[in-house]
Amino acid sequence: MAKAQILPRDFYVDPPDVVARNLLGKLLVRRYETEARSRRKTERLAGRIVEAEAYFGLDDPAAHAFAGKTERNAVLFGPPGFAYVYFIYGMHFCMNICCEPEGQAGCVLLRALEPVEGLGTMARLRGLSADANSRLLTSGPGRLCQALGIVRETHNGIDVTSARSGLHVEDDGFRPEEIAVTRRIGIRKAAERPARFAIAGNRFVSG
Q: Residue 178 class from Cβ within 10 Å (0-12 exposed, 13-18 middle, 19+ buried)?
């Protein structure tokens, strides 16, 4: 297995559907810090991206950027390679990664991970027992954010191409054998667009 490398900014310059497809098999990594007995402990939480959805900015009625730039979605209009985190249904955070050149507002929603490192902490953050079914940890956009402790207040606008950010995406050389492409799910507008990408047959894919 190749030594893992953090994906550079130019990886995210492509259109959202290209970036979404290329993100499959990469590792989303979170440096999670806790306080224990007055000592700070850092743990690596990681999951392989197995499902992602593309959103196309001003040309996409389902995209948060469709109505134009606002205070809430300003990150989408900035440079590629930054996290856009939002709160939905009054209970879940969802994480996107901005793509396309600055000003074009494309992004990719991370929908599911295959948990790889830190499963015990993921279970605790999800409010589950340590021996819970691993599919319950990061299968779904809200679940994966909860399992990795990703919230808007801390992670919206964070640079995922920097090792210093505590949240980034790595390439460890893994390549999916087969990719499934379907319509997007969980939305009403432009749902028919074939912009959902998943590693075919992976049991951690949501929905």
A: exposed
